[in-house]
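Researcher: We're reviewing a set of sequences before deciding which ones to prioritize for further study. For each one, I'd like a predicted 3D structure that I can look through quickly. This is C2H2-type domain-containing protein. If possible, include the structure in token form so it fits the rest of the review sheet.
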Amino acid sequence: MKTHDENRAKPFKCKLCDYSTDNKHYLTSHLKIHDKNREKSLKCYQCDYKTDLKSHLKSHMQIHNPNREKFPCLYCNYETTIRSSLKRHLKKQHYPNRV
Ligand SMILES: [Zn+2]
Ligand SMILES: [Zn+2]
Ligand SMILES: [Zn+2]
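Model: Here's the predicted structure for C2H2-type domain-containing protein, in token form for your review sheet.
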């Protein structure tokens, strides 16, 4: 009778739940499910921007690039490196009634 063979030692145990495994790699990937606080762990070092996606951070960083093309407002001295921000500015400041 070898009914206990499947329960052989699982030395890697999760501290946060009952999960245990004999494969360290599985434990490491299991631990990610308890990792809720690490959401938005990527931070911009130049402003308060935070994200959990590397690609988002990368595109965010473009706004700090001094060589980036700027979009000035034609009606005031506002300028921005983000085209959508200029659009928002125009709509809000200069065309508040336009839909
Ligand atoms: Zn766990
Ligand atoms: Zn930033
Ligand atoms: Zn303006």
